[in-house]
Amino acid sequence: xxxxxxxxxxxxxxxxxxxxxxxxxxxxxxxxxxxxxxxxxxxxxxxxxxxxxxxxxxxxxxxxxxxxxxxxxxxxxxxxxxxxxxxxxxxxxxxxxxxxxxxxxxxxxxxxxxxxxxxxxxxxxxxxxxxxxxxxxxxxxxxxxxxxxxxxxxxxxxxxxxxxxxxxxxxxxxxxxxxxxxxxxxxxxxxxxxxxxxxxxxxxxxxxxxxxxxxxxxxxxxxxxxxxxxxxxxxxxxxxxxxxxxxxxxxxxxxxxxxxxxxxxxxxxxxxxxxxxxxxxxxxxxxxxxxxxxxxxxxxxxxxxxxxxxxxxxxxxxxxxxxxxxxxxxxxxxxxxxxxxxxxxxxxxxxxxxxxxxxxxxxxxxxxxxxxxxxxxxxxxxxxxxxxxxxxxxxxxxxxxxxxxx
Amino acid sequence: xxxxxxxxxxxxxxxxxxxxxxxxxxxxxxxxxxxxxxxxxxxxxxxxxxxxxxxxxxxxxxxxxxxxxxxxxxxxxxxxxxxxxxxxxxxxxxxxxxxxxxxxxxxxxxxxxxxxxxxxxxxxxxxxxxxxxxxxxxxxxxxxxxxxxxxxxxxxxxxxxxxx
Lengths: 406, 164
Fold this sequence. Notes:
The structure holds 2 protein chains of 2 kinds.
Chain A lengths: L1 H18 L23 H5 L6 E5 L2 E4 L17 E2 L14 E5 L7 E4 H7 L2 E9 L22 E10 H8 L7 E6 L16 E3 H4 L5 E6 L2 E2 L9 E3 L12 E7 L14 E3 L14 E3 L6 E6 L4 E3 L5 E8 L5 E7 L7 E2 L1 E2 L9 E7 L5 E11 L23 E7 L1
Parallel strand pairs in A: 4-13, 17-24
Antiparallel strand pairs in A: 1-2, 2-3, 4-5, 6-7, 7-10, 8-9, 8-13, 10-11, 10-12, 14-15, 16-18, 18-22, 19-20, 19-23, 21-22, 23-24
Chain B lengths: L1 H36 L9 H16 L4 E2 L2 E2 L10 H8 L5 H5 L5 H14 L8 H12 L17 E2 L6
Antiparallel strand pairs in B: 1-2
């Protein structure tokens, strides 16, 4: 980090000479902007990623997995999508890291060091599904603005930490509390210190769930910096943006939290369905809560060629936000007929469930295997891209892979 | 006769000197003309080494805004009218990838600029706004993909599985 700063400073001077003359209204541009060309770090090395991960955006960093990279039962760091709204904090001082709990609905604000959190409260480990609200955005028509996630912005890792409910009970929150909102140490991409890149939250009921954690470990180790070191709020089953990274303050609100990316069209969908491309007023948009039922075929990788007469073993994961997945099916004839897969129970609530099946094909040719999960309420995945919304959230259309039988 | 001979010899000497001087001037002129065309005298140096150094010079001089196969190498933007205005105004805060992965109509590109000006500290683009919006609407326009696109399978591979 330090070395990069030095390089940045040294190069900035040169940069001004090279492009300064061409930047119209350059005087309006804050001096500490970091022009793109200088952000030349290798993300695969920087974040320890599998070389097949896909970089959608390098400022801020947004990187997704491919389906076959998510084959592990517990997602490891190298295959975990990275979604940032701002710039990853630099020079994190763990010894002096403080979590402040404040807001209208606490009688007095209180602070906890990381040591306080670890020693004062019981620690729990849960495997939690964390999926970006915009996962699948790339399929919407007309296209929706933002990072064009395909299918890889989902993970299910082991998170270890203390229950947010234990911390909130320790403080004692007022009866008028309706929402929590997190604040964090990341920087707005304009580097404007008065702007927060993102500050979202969840209703009190979700905050008080047993599985809602203030986590300091991911898969048994310190959380990687790209995933929120040293402290992350984890709200499994809800849009990943509610699982705030680098959290240093949680406000207990007596109103629905109104932080950055809680308002307007951000992480909201039309309260009533709209036609593709419709303009929707801000007041007609509703906050996304639990994510919808969805599944992913993680084996084999799409494009497999097998010999006629052979059986193909397929597998993957299914999840359904707050709910459990009740049934998992596959089709090799574009949904004309469905066959049932073996489906495991979740390790704990809000963990994804593993499925598998042995597929045989009637004759040679090109096939697509489509996977479809149905949740505990009997709601299944659509085969087509579901309801259009301005920001392209909640695409839970069936995943499919191509197979050739020769 | 002796004086006559001496004069003749002197005249001959002068004539020789003149020829030599002219030859030197002519050689100098030819050399100067050559240097104008090939200042580094590369034709007289080892050929392979010369080519390498020439290529290297070109790359360092043109690299910054080099366009290859219609793509601006530094950012990935496609070549088109207004390219450098877009590069200079749209890649200071965020990656060019945030632009190039999106497809929008002119109205929606304008709306996106307004949103960035209202919430993300984007400056007044002045007359450049039209140049930028025209470039984006032309080169990054939406394509209709329908309700579900065909699977794009580019990498088929053999998978060994157990026979029935």
